[in-house]
Every structure is written in C-alpha cells, then in structure tokens.
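S2.1 Query sequence (Retinol-binding protein 3-like)
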Amino acid sequence: MAVGRFSQVLLVLFCHVLYSSSSFQPALVLDMAKILLDNYCFPENLVGMQEAIQQAINSGEILKISDRKTLASVLTAGVQGALNDPRLTVSFEPNFVPVMPPALPSLPMEQLIRLVRNSVKLEVLENNVGYLRIDRIIGEETAAKLGPLLRENIWTKVTHASSLIFDLRYSTAGELDGVPFIISYFSDPEPLIHIDTVFDRPSNTTKELWTMSSIMGERYGKRKDLIVLTSKRTMGAAEAIAYTLKHLNRAIIVGERSAGGSVKVQKIRIGDSGFYITVPVARSVNPITGQSWEVSGVSPSVNINAKEAVANAKNLLAVRSAIPNAVQSVSDIIRQYYSFTDRVPALLQHLESTDFFSVISEEDLANKINYELQSVSEDPRLMIKLTQDPPVIIEEDFEPENIPNDPAFLTNLVDTVFKVRILTGNTGYLRFDKFGDVSVMAILGEQIALKIWEPLKDTENLIIDLRYNTGGSSASMGILLSFLQDPSQQFHFFTIYDRIQNTTTEFNTLSGLPGPPYGSKRGVYILTSYYTAGAGEEFAYLMQSLHRGTLIGEITSGTLMHSKSFQVEDTDIVITVPFINIIDNNGECWLGGGVVPDAIVLAEEAVDHTHEIIEFHREVRSLVEGTGELLEVHYAIPEVANKVSRVLLVKWAEGSYRSVVDYESLASQLTTDLQETSGDHRLHVFYCDIEPETLHDMPKIPTAEEVGYIIDALFKIEVMPGNVGYFRFDMMADIEVMRAIGPELIKLVWSKLVNTDTMIIDMRYNTGGYSTAIPLLCTYFFDAEPLRHLYTVFDRSTTTMTEVMTLPQIQGQRYGSTKDIYILTSHMTGSAAEAFTRTMKDLNRATVIGEPTIGGSLSSATYQIGNSILYVSIPNQVVLSAVTGKSWEVVGVTPDVEVDAEDALAAAIKIINLRAEVPAILEATGALVADNYAFENVGADVAEKLAAASGDYNLISSKVELEAKLSADLMTLSGDKCLKTTHNIPALPPMNPSPEMFIELIKVSFHTDLFENNIGYLRFDMFGDFEEVQAIAQIIVEHVWNKVVNTDALIVDLRNNVGGPTTAIAGFCSYFFDADKQVLLDKLYDRPSGTTKELWSLPELTGARYGTKKSLIILTSGATAGAAEEFVYIMKKHGRAMIVGETTNGASHPPETFRVGESEVFLSIPTTHSDTTQGPAWEGAGVAPHIPVPAEAALDTAKGILNKHFAGAKK
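Output structure tokens follow.
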C-alpha cells in the first residue's frame, strides 16, 4: 500500500510543481528522488517513484512556484504525505554550511573526562535506591578508552544498590553502538540476547546488536528492580535503551512518551541547488516486537509528567520492595489455613515462580496474586483483593445457648423457630430460618418430634422452606438429613474437614431419632431465595447432590462461610481463605458461588410452582417405565434394550429424576440416560404438543410435471476431464418414486454417466432418506449374474431377518463391476446413504474418501410415551454387513482415505490419476527386475507373476500405499528382502575435510582394543568406498591398523556392521593373506552387463599385512549385512577365519536404484551376486557361523577360544 500511495501522491504533487518558466524544478525533483533511492532507509517504499516523477514531468500541468521556500514546503508536504514519515523535510538554505561535530574518540582525554562527568549524575537515595542519570550515551570506542574511569566512578557504585532509577529524561544524544554495553550491564552473561537489528541504507548493510558476554566491571544483573525515566526530550540511543529494556521485561518505564527520534539522519544537498533534504538513512528493528522506537517513541509503563517521574519512581519502588514480603505473607497464610491441603504445595511453588515484573501498584499486586491463585487452585473461595477497610471476620460461634430445661419454654421455642403446616394435596410445609447447634437440637429433640415430625409423618410430599434461612451450624444438617432417609439403611451424607483443627468428621444416617422419620421415598421440595445463605445453601446443595430433593426458587446468595480474612502485613491487601471443606457423598467439594435450583422462579412464586411440579412428578415414574418398555419392544438390539430399561428404573429409584421439573427437562434427562447407557446417540426423547410427522409415511408419487423438477433438485452430474463421471445426489428417494422417475432419470442423468471410465458418487450432503432404493442403486454397479448379497436387515418389531440382494433386471444399461467407483462422504452422510456406502465398501466395489459418516440408522420410528406429549425416536432395524456380519450403525462408516470433506473430491481425482499410472508402473517394474535383478531366472519369474497380480492394485489409494504393496509383492515373489521400492535420495556433495577432521572421523568410526594374551580387537560398523578409503589409507593405518597388526590373534567385530560398498573388500581381505601368492577371493556376476568379475587379493597394500599364520575370529549377528557378509563369506570359504555369533542378515551386494518409467517410484534392485555353481552363496540366506552363540555372547566366546588356545600352546 505504501508503494501505491507514494506513486499516486508524487504524481499529483509533481504535476503541480514541475512546470515553470525556469527549468530547475524537474532537475531538482529528479535529484531529490535519486537521493531518496540511494539513502532512504525504507527503499521498499520507493518502488515506482522514478516512473511516477517522469510521468509527472511529461504531463505538462502548470503551476508556477517561483518562491524557493514555498517550493520547499510543498515538496516537504508531498514527500511526508507520500511516505508517511515526518522526518523527511526539504529546505531552501543557500547559505547553509555543514558543520560536523568532532567524534568523541578524537577528543583529548581531559575533554572526554569532563564530558562524561558533565553528562552523568550518580547518587544513592534512601533505602539503598540507586539513582543514575546519563544525558549522553557514549559509544563503544569511547567506552573502551574511558573503561577504568567509568567502572570506578559509575558502574561499581551502582552495582550494590538494592534497586535503581535510571534517568534518561535529558538524554538527547549518543551513539547506538553504546547500547549493547548498557543492556548487557542489566542482563546476565548467558545466554546472549539479540537486542536490535540496524539497517544502513547508504552502505546497504545490516548489523545485529547482541548483549556482551564480558563487560568491564561487575554487572547489575537482571534480578533487581530497574526503573527507566523518560521525557518528551529523550531521543536516539537513549530511546533504543528504554525500548529494549521495556520489551525484555527488564525495566519499568516511567514518565512521558519519548521524542521518537532516529537511528541516523543526514541533511543532504540536492544537486548544486540551495535545497537540502533531511533523510533518515538507517533504521532499527527490535527482534522481539518486529517494530521500532523511531518516530513513534517509547510509551511509558506509567504515564506521568516528567517532573514528577523521580517521586513516582520512588513510590513505585516502595511498592515493589513490598512484593517479596507480601507474597511470603500470603504463602504463610495459605500454608496455615487453606482447607485443600493437597493443593498447598503447588500453590506455594507457583507463587514462588511467578514473575511480578508488571506490578506497578498494590492493586496490580492484589490482582496478580489473585489471578495466579485462582488459575492453580480453581477455588473461587480463595480470594485476594485490595480494600481500604479492615477485613470483616465472620464469626462462626455456635456455642450452645443457655436454654432452661422448662417444657413450656422448649415448646414455645420450637413453635417460634419452626413453622409447620399441612397444605392442599396433603403436602407438608416446614420453615425454619436458621440451623441450630447440635446440642440445642438434642435438647429440643422431643419437642421437635412432637411438633414437627408427628404432624408431617402422613403427608405425601414435604416442602422445606429455606427462602429466609441465613445459615447456622453445618453439623446440624446431618440430623435433618437423617429424618429424610430410611433409618434401616446406613447412608453417608457428607464430610467436613476443618483445617484449623485438622479434623475430619463424617456425617451418616443417625439412629434412634426422637421422632418418626420421613423416609426416602416421598418427595421433598426445597424452596430457596437470594437470601438463603451459609448452612441453608449447604443443605440445599447436599439435597441436590444426594438426589433427595427438588430445588425450587432463586439462586442462593453464595455467601462464603467457613472462611477467614487476613490483612497482608504493611499493605491494604486482604486474603480470604476457606478453612473448612464440605465434601458430598460423591467426593465433590462445594466451592460456594450459589446453588442453582432445578426450577428457577421468583421466591414469592415458589410455593405455587412447587404444587405444579408435585403434580408433574406423579407421572414421571410411569413415563420412565414406559420409555423402557418401548425400547424392549422396538429397539433393534434386544439385549441392550433390556439393560437400558433396567437402568432407567434404577435411576428413578435412586432419585435421579427428582431434578426434572417439566416435560422439557424430563426429555433431556431421558435422552442423556438412554444414550449414556446404550452408547447409541440415535436414541432421543423429545416433547411435542402435536403429534410429530413420521419420516417414513408413504411417499407421494410425483406427477409427470413434477418429475423434471425432482431430477433437477436431487441430482447433479458432470463429465470431468479423463472421462470421469461425477454423480451427486443429496437424498435417498423411495423405490416407488425412483420407478416413477426412472425413464426420465435414465435419459437425463444416467445416460450421460454410464459410458464414463470412472465414477465419483458424491454423498457428502446426503443425510439419508428411504432405504428401499438401495438395492436398485447398487445393482447398476454389479453384473447381472450372479446376484450379489448386499446386506441383511434385522427388524426388531417383526423379529425377521431379510437378505437384500441385487436385482436381476433394471432399466437402462449397467455400469458394470470392473470400472472404478469412488464415494465421497462427510460427517453429514447418514442412514440410507451410509447403508449404500458401507455396502459398496464391504464388497470392494468402491473406494470411500472423506470423513467418517454420522452413524445413523437405516430405520428409526417415533413412539409416543404413554398418553403424554413425550415421544421417543428408536432405531428399529439393524443392517448387517454381507461380508463381516457386523453393523455400521452408531459408529458410522470409516473411509478408506480419510480427508476433510471439502478436500474429498480433489483427493478422489488424485487417486484416479494415480491408479491410471499403476499398469504402466507394474509393467516397467517387471521389465526392470527382469533385466537387472542379479538372479536372472528369479527376475523373469517375478516379472511374470507381478503382471498377473495387477488386479490386486485396483484399490490402491496413495503413492505410499502403492510403494508399500509393491515392496511387499517384490519381496514375497523373489524371497529377497533387498528387492523393494526405495526413495531417490540425492547424493551428498563431496566433503573435503582437513587431515585433522579425517583423524577425528576415523577415531569415531573405528574402535580398537588389546586384550589379555596380546589379542587384538577391531570393530567398525560400515565398509567404505575403495576410492575414499584409498585416499586416507595411510591415516587409517597410522591411527587404527598399527594398533592391532602386531597382536598374536585378532577379533574382528562385525556384529553391528550394516554393509556399505563392496569395492574395498578385496583390499581388506588381502591384509589377512600373504603377499607372495594372490588368492581368488570370489567371482561376482553382474546381471545388467551379463559379465562375471574375478575378485583377487591385492599384491601391494598400505601398511603391514596381518598374514595367514595368526588366528583370526570374526564376530557376526543377525544385523551383519551386505558388504560385511561378503567379507565373512570370503574369509570362511577360504578357511582364513573362524566365525562366531549368529547367522548374518542374508542381504545382498549393494543394490542399485532405478526409476520406474516416468513415475516418481524408485526400485532398489540387487544387480550382483557371488557366482557359485551351488546357487546363491550368502544372498538371502546369510552366512552361518562355525560356532553359533547369541550376538551379545560372541565376544566373550571368542576371547575364551583364543585364551584357551594360547594356554594350550604354553604347555
């Protein structure tokens, strides 16, 4: 956008400037443009500028501007507006004489010292707060010259301050190369930090600025507080320091937004005129933000008048100095009082590791600690806040009152505290506004039994009114809960853990109640309001979690009881800590926040709503039972239906349905229970005031006029490039409808697709419909004979099994069974569309591409539950695969190739193109194997069998799958694990390491040792190429071979040697034979050339031979392969070595890589084998050891053999 804007603005500007009676303006503008192109630090914004200027010159528009200063102002406005850079200015100054200030390093030492002392102020304020003011940032060269002075007079004195105020308010000059030293002073030595990148346009160079690993003097470090002061005058290098320290989270910036200067600005004369243009020639980019302090300046963390910055910084440091003590105080309170003792270690560790860099006030500190505690504890009761008022301590003193033992008084007290009535419908009503202490409740036991439970014992339901209950003793809740349970069953209600007392109290059913229990069968309804608090809302919560009651009314107050508040020392911060946990019988702890009723209504309307809910609850059991009965009759899987039916009744008996308060909530609860118990998401209960329409009502047969519209609406077709048919339909129509539209469908749709070579059937938007047309649709993709079993349908309602077959006769031409079919699916593909897709997949007639389908049902029916407005949708049929006998329902159809639905069509086309290449790839593979495989007869046989197996590749879906199958087939047909597909790995460029690098590489590649009895040990895990080895033979001899050549016996360890080139085999073998006689080591047959090469020992070697006289043992394992096997084979064949270990891998001589035709498939083909009259020498079979032992025991076995040999020789 900057480029386009610049070109357009300059075009308009210059059209009005360039023409004059004199001719200096065009040259002036062109010269200015040249200066910008060569010097402006944002060259990317200048693209197209010269063309725009030339176009303006040629346009001929006239605006005479004879006044030079006016022209300069116009040019300034134009260039600033075009590039959005206020630093670009044009001026007319014919008498301007550039004055270059002397560089600091060139000044005499006395002047440098005076300059530094005048620009630096240092003092230590109260509380050991350091104050450092620097008005000029000195550069790297000057700093090095004045090193001892700066160290002794500035940095050493600052280092020992507890915190530091770094004042840059008056810093208006300096060198940017001095920035790394100051940033390093406030950082650790490691790791080095990339702090800035500076681009210089005239030199077209980029320089990165990093912190320094070593600096003069002791570092201030990064752990003590640092505040940087800025003002509107802060400019240049000082801005770079402030910006960097801010975004490294190392310093808090206090004061005003800085000036927004530049890294480097030059005033350049435009040609020979008196005009000058001021241009920023360098720019800074911060690596953290990707932006810069230039122009926009550095915004402060605390925005305040610069004159007040020091005082504000002192206050801020005072706040920050209190952070460690405040955090420690909070930690101590949590450690001593917090009721979740298992969470305390994590909370304390988290607080200890929290970064409080951003805290600039007590309010920030309170909010930060609160946020961190909440994120770890997930407990809303644990709160930190700032308050000017002392914490309110809620006393929970439930000491027993001094109650006189006077029956009349006790009776009057019960009548006052408890309100008992019998409402209409034989519904009991009990109200009390506070839970009394347990001891008081014991004293009042007989009166409570007489005045409360006797009147209520015969009611059908009970309303407990807690709308005005403000709390009380939590322990007394157990008494009331016991009255509401069956006394014959021991039941756990809740547990109270008290952190202060460190006690755990369990509350269970109480025995020996003073009055008749109300029991657990009858309905209990709890009324709540915004005033319900403390033990009142705890009781409501427990009744809900115990499934013992139905809550009706308003959300409770959420008043935090069982908590203590403490003021954090020397602050206005208050921490509230819960010290008691109430844990329900499910092991869950109530964390406050208010209890949400099952039915939310206004408190004053709660009683009326309760009567309505009581009436509704009278029919809940029959509706739950009726739902189960409908499942038992109609659900497609009888054993699941019986299980679900039983579970529903158990849940009702346990009280799980007490929370339902209307048909909507009952339908939701039933749906949840049905789906969770059965695992079938298709089961669904809903309510409807009118009888719902049934999906499978008899379909309407379309008229002749409607047929064309239906075909256009349902079917989309296209013949794509490569004669690929595309067939999309979004609904499965009924068989009768299909028959009615059949002739037109054949004419308008099928006739255009039937002669394509491949077809893509798009079911991504097909959500189902009727299943009756599935056999007809499938039939088109199979031959007429024999009829194919598509799937079996089990109908639960009729308990019948129906095998669905292809049809013997259809209208129109069949697509046949040989052409490829691809079906596209999505998460929307459902029911009948899934049945068609799964059938085609199971019968290997189609490749399915896309997303797993929804897992719908072939047929679901809707049944009314009793005479209610509730209905349940039940799948009553199950489709069983003709191949596996299993159902796809519920889980859906998993595609052969799983991709996002929107990518399915592209994926299908890609597979089609791949499969079109497969025949040619197989043919080319066979030819390559026949012409190049080392064993000619085997190669010809593999090629013939591979051609015959081409039909097995019809369902290949990716290049990876093709390569894997081709590899498996080649290995199976040849019996050779080395004949397989591979990847074309480009050869690495040749390395030219130094002799020193070669030596280190050799030391790593070879391992030598010297055992008892002068037994040598040599291990290397790969053979090298002869040309490479020959070049470094002398180095290998000096650093490896000479260590073992003079031993009396040698163990060569090839257990981990995986092969490599065989070109160096002859040379290595030669070391173990004598020089006076050449040995024919092996004959190698090369299949591509049809020639046999003789492998002889070499007459000349680098270094001494080991010879034939000394003992040689070679260690092998199942991993020993390729060139290593060839070496073992030669040495064993010539009787030169004893082989100890395991049979080798049975690989081959190093295979060659061949490209298969023009494809991107590559083959690894062994082309050479050891030529023997008995068949393969070791290829495919491996080399058997003389002494077979496990690989891990081979070395000890070899040493034992040689030690025994030497011991016998000494005797």
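The domain at 104-261+297-314 is CATH 3.90.226.10 (2-enoyl-CoA Hydratase; Chain A, domain 1). Residues 365 and 643 are 57 Å apart (CA to CA).
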